[in-house]
Write a structure and sequence with these properties.
The chain has 77 residues and is of the alpha+beta class. Helices cover 19% and strands 30% of the residues.
Amino acid sequence: MSVKVRYFASLRERLGRSEDELVFFAPLTAHAIWERANPDLPMPDNTLVAVNMDYVKLDVLVNDGDEIAFFPPVTGG
């Protein structure tokens, strides 16, 4: 299985990259994808995650070919 992982805004700056391509052999949750892609960095509190452009909870299972995006909390005014 292969997924594209994208990082936006301050997460992209903090990680120093905008995306990763991950290959895995068993179903993983969105949270496990973060842990696999960033083993030395805990996910920041209130991080938002989207799978194929739909916001999801961290425990959603991802599928082969999915795009997973991580965003810092959205603020507005």
